[in-house]
Amino acid sequence: MQEMPTDPRRAIFTLRIIWLALILGQGIFFVVAVAQRGQLTGKGSEMLPYIALALAAAMMPIGGFLRRMSLERGKREMHPMQGLAKGTILFLACCEGPSFFASVSILITGRLTPAMWVPAVATALMLIVFPSEEQLV
Fold first, then answer.
1. Would 80 be classed as within a structural domain?
2. pLDDT tens digits for 65-91?
């Protein structure tokens, strides 16, 4: 296992690559889902958008809490960059999961609303947590 880079700028750059990859993957999948929506409709799929909303309502705040706890722990017990990296990746994953689920529900049901709000909110939250050196202080 590799050590965390000692130069904060390099570590932040690596974290920004992960951040960008997660946002781009989610965005590209959403575009494909919207373009192909309704072609896979199935019985019982009408609940999928509401399940996506419930996942978002549960996971996104939990991801924010985990990120905050990881940042605090990183400053207290380990290198702050480790706390920032762990917390940010956890938060991004908690946003990305419901977003992909919502995109799949759009693909299957063919309906944009209400599921389209999940990727929109997830992307906005992911953009807000852009990794920076100021978060290490």
1. yes
2. 999 998 888 888 878 888 888 889 999
Number of domains in the chain: 1
**Long-range contacts (CB closer than 8 Å, 24 or more residues apart) made by 57-60:** 59/94, 59/95, 59/97, 59/98, 60/94, 60/95, 60/98, 60/121, 60/122, 60/125
Q: Please tell me the total number of residues recorded for the chain in this structure.
A: 137
For residue 88, is it within any domain? yes
Which residues span the domain enclosing 120? 9-130
Residue 119 lies in a domain: yes
* Residue 136 within any structural domain of the chain: no
Can you count the helices (H) and strands (E) in the chain?
4, 0
CA 68 – CA 85 distance, rounded (Å): 11
Q: Is the pTM above the cut of 0.85?
A: no
**Span 1-25, pLDDT tens digits:** 455 556 778 788 888 888 888 888 8
